[in-house]
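Journal club prep — side note

Before the paper discussion, L.F. wants everyone to see what a predicted structure for a comparable chain looks like in token form. Sequence:
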Amino acid sequence: MEQPLDVPELAAGGGFTLRPWRLADLPLVREASEDDHIPLITTVPSPYSEPAGIAFIERQWSRATTRAGYTFVIVTSDGRPVGQVGLWLKDLDEGRASLGYWVVKSARGQGAAAAAVDAVVGWALRDLRIPRLELWVEPWNTASVRTAERSGFQREGLLRGWQQVGNERRDMFMYARLNDEQ
């Protein structure tokens, strides 16, 4: 069996830090579970319960154990966890990895997502030398569109009915960033 991935701590702009998940992050999972959108497109449990929150955090740990990817908690300069960013390696054999991110409502508009995405992108391109990074954004999500574009991703098109979100298939904008575009 291959060694599990080592999820590092990464410094991000704006005083944010990225680190592995801890059981002490249950309040973050609880807040995310109450969001109208986060549980629809992630594995954040809704409704929340402590056992479901623990299972969510254990799933994040298993992503490194199974080499599926790196999942980080976004933390403010005063130590408050405010979101998640993940680098998923499912298509790494094809030279691609994907990113996903979310920030709880109480912390939006403070640059957490942009700082986290920039930190993971820099690390993935520079240190991991991944040739192509991808992410998908629902067309209505203008904040995520801005985050992707500010982080150097280019929109490549609209994927119609691309992803199951809640009880329906939704369109997604496809964004990509290539390693040689640094």
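L.F.'s comment for the group: Residues 50-65 form the longest helix (16 residues). Keep this in mind when we get to the figures.
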